[in-house]
Structure formats: C-alpha cells, structure tokens
Amino acid sequence: MNVSPVSELPTSFLRAAYDLRSVSSDTRPPDWLPTTLTALRVLIRAAEEELGSVAGAAGIGQQIRTAEPRLAYALTRLEGELAVALVALWRIKERMVRGEGRDDIGVLADTTLRTAERICDLLRESFIDPAASD
Fold it and tell me: Is 18 helix (H, G, I), strand (E, B) or coil?
C-alpha cells in the first residue's frame, strides 16, 4: 500500500486558520513575513478545497442539504462567508507581497478562523437528530 507522508496531506481549513492566527501575532521575528505568507498560502489552498467541498455538487454541502434541509439556509450563508473570506485572503496575500497589510492580517486571520469554526459547528449539527433532543 502506497501511503503519502503526513506532510503531503492537505491541511484542513480549520487547522490552516489556526496556524495563520498564530503566526500573525504581534510579535514579529525577522522571518515573520515569509512565515506568514507561507501560512497564508496554505490557508488559501485549504479554503479553496473547503469551498469546493461545501458548495460542490457532490460535496458535503449537498449531502447536508439532502439529509438535513433545516440547515440549508445556514449552509448557504456559510458558503457566502467562505467565498468572501477567500477573496479577502487572495487580496491580503497580494498586499503583503507588496509590503502592505501587516496590520490587517491578524483581523483577517480571526475572521477566517470564526468562519472555519462555524463550518465545523454546522457539520456537527448535521449529525444531531433534532427529534432526539426533545
């Protein structure tokens, strides 16, 4: 069996959001910019994969809509949040490459992390039987 090393596995959107938040802190060592740009690129790739999974026709989003129609509105709202976050991530990456945006990266990291946490919450909620909580 041919198994990829862990370093080649895709990083989850939630993990990548946590990583960006941790490297974008106020303490900025000399390698802060390259480290933050690397974390940002990983998060962009993870967000693109997450959006494809959530909004894609055969993704988890479609499965949730089919199995739990009560969550369709929340899922649609999260798809929009994720798309907005992805565009903001692309823009901040370009600004940081030009030497701008250092002060904005922390706020964006926090916002993206909250979106990732809401997606995880929605996935958890999709596994809860509303009839069982009565």
Answer: helix
pTM score, whole prediction: 0.80
What is the distance between the alpha carbons of residues 54 and 33, in angstroms, rounded to a whole number? 31
Residue 35 CA neighbour count, 13 Å, CB half: 13
Number of structural domains in the chain = 1
Q: Provide the residue range defining the domain that includes 44.
A: 13-22+31-127
- Measured CA to CA, the distance from residue 91 to residue 15 in angstroms comes to 21
Spatial distance between the Cα atoms of 112 and 114, rounded to a whole number of angstroms? 5
- Position 8 in a domain: no
Contact by Cβ (8 Å): 115, 75? no
Q: How far apart are CA 60 and CA 77, in angstroms?
A: 15
- Residue 76 tokens, joined: 């649609």
Closest CA to 16 of 50, 57, 59, 64: 50
Please indicate, yes or no, if residue 66 is contained in any of the structural domains. Answer: yes
pLDDT tens readout for residues 1-53 = 333 333 444 578 889 999 998 888 767 777 888 889 999 999 999 999 888 88
In a domain, 100, yes or no: yes
